[in-house]
């Protein structure tokens, strides 16, 4: 390719990366804000978070559009992996944004009943998930496979915390029938956060694919046993 | 391009479509089988469904691989949309497969307690979701935008059935504390099925994108109100 064509390709690829990184930070900030409104029981702020999700969706459309434009130039090898990774990572971030918005939305249902003492566990796994999202986006920005692998390995921590919270919430529901509806919302909020951890893991695997191509991913442990939990 | 190059491109594109359609049918069959094992309380068959999910994941890797190969040929316009649609649809089917496997996995937890009478509602929305997956894959195969739009519109039916089931399960949990753990699994199983409906909708939107490009999607109604349900 001519020099000026290469330059404009690089500029568009840089733009694509910047958009994806911006999306990631928006999703992390949305989750952080959602955890905050759960704590503060602030319906107005919760409604704002739900509305903000559109901005992430709009950015995903821009990413898809830019991927289309770059794909038309017939990129090869690493350049091609860059755009495939961007489209997949943008899809994961879009889902993370949806889950964060759903946490905010469900907080409004929680606020129709008296405050629960069980919200602390949610904050804990929520903060772990925010960190996972920020760490994996930094690994993506830096093409840092080792950092991405660390995010992938830490997902077991979120899974274990989720399983613990799941069991804890079941016991509250058994002790007091009035806790059933709010605890069910908390169960789904916790599940949303656990899923955010899974999407951070997907992003980590795309960083691996971007840098290492078709090399096989190293194995990792899973610790979510709530699927088979019985009390 | 030369004639023989065009021919081999068409053959590879056909192969990509066939793989994606095969993935879709595998996911629909997995969900059907999962509903069946819930009904029959068959742990062995449930374990087989969980194990089968790997075959869908492997097929998604093949689709990604074939998309990479096709993208190297620098496809334009409709051809480019074909491969972008294939990669996104394959990702949605992979998730549908995960949700179907999770329904089977949770059925094993249900089987540790006496049979519940509340499984009928799950079968109903499960069958709706199986139909949505098969219908949307047929719409994709035929590039039938109208059929895809019908699938998109019917998602409201699954959402409404899910909201009803969600409320029904909450009442059983309130009536009998022993029902809390199994009903929680049923809540998550119902949620998985409702999410399968959402992924069928995503596929329908990709059929639209494939055929109509960047034309704006027509609006549609949503009917899942369980996020804000209070009892």
UniProtKB/TrEMBL annotation, chains A, B:
Residues 21-106, 124-207 form the PhoU domain. Keywords: Cytoplasm, Phosphate transport, Transport. Its main location: cytoplasm. It holds the Pfam family PhoU. It is found in: Cytoplasm. Gene3D superfamilies: Phosphate transport system protein phou homolog 2, domain 2. PANTHER family: PHOSPHATE-SPECIFIC TRANSPORT SYSTEM ACCESSORY PROTEIN PHOU (PTHR42930:SF3). Belongs to the PhoU family. Plays a role in the regulation of phosphate uptake. Homodimer. This is Phosphate-specific transport system accessory protein PhoU. It comes from Cognatilysobacter xinjiangensis.
């Amino acid at each position: 390719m001519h020099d000026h064509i290469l330059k404009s390709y690089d500029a568009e690829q840089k733009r694509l990366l910047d958009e994806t990184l911006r999306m990631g930070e928006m999703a992390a900030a949305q989750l952080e804000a959602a955890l905050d409104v759960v704590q503060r029981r602030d319906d107005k702020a919760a409604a704002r978070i739900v509305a903000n999700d559109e901005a992430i969706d709009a950015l995903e459309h821009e990413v898809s559009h830019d991927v289309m434009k770059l794909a038309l130039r017939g990129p090869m090898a690493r350049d091609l992996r860059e755009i495939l990774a961007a489209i997949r990572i943008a899809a994961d971030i879009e889902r993370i944004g949806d889950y964060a918005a759903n946490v905010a939305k469900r907080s409004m249902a929680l606020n129709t009943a008296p405050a629960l003492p069980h919200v602390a566990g949610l904050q804990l796994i929520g903060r772990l998930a925010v960190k996972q999202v920020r760490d994996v986006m930094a690994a993506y920005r830096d093409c840092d496979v080792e950092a991405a692998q660390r995010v992938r390995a830490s997902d077991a921590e979120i899974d274990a915390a989720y399983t613990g919270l799941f069991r804890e919430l079941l016991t509250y529901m058994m002790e007091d029938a009035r806790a059933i509806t709010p605890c069910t919302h908390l169960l789904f909020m916790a599940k949303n956060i656990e899923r955010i951890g899974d999407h951070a893991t997907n992003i980590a695997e795309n960083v691996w694919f971007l840098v290492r191509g078709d090399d096989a991913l190293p194995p990792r442990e899973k610790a979510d046993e709530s699927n088979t939990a019985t009390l």
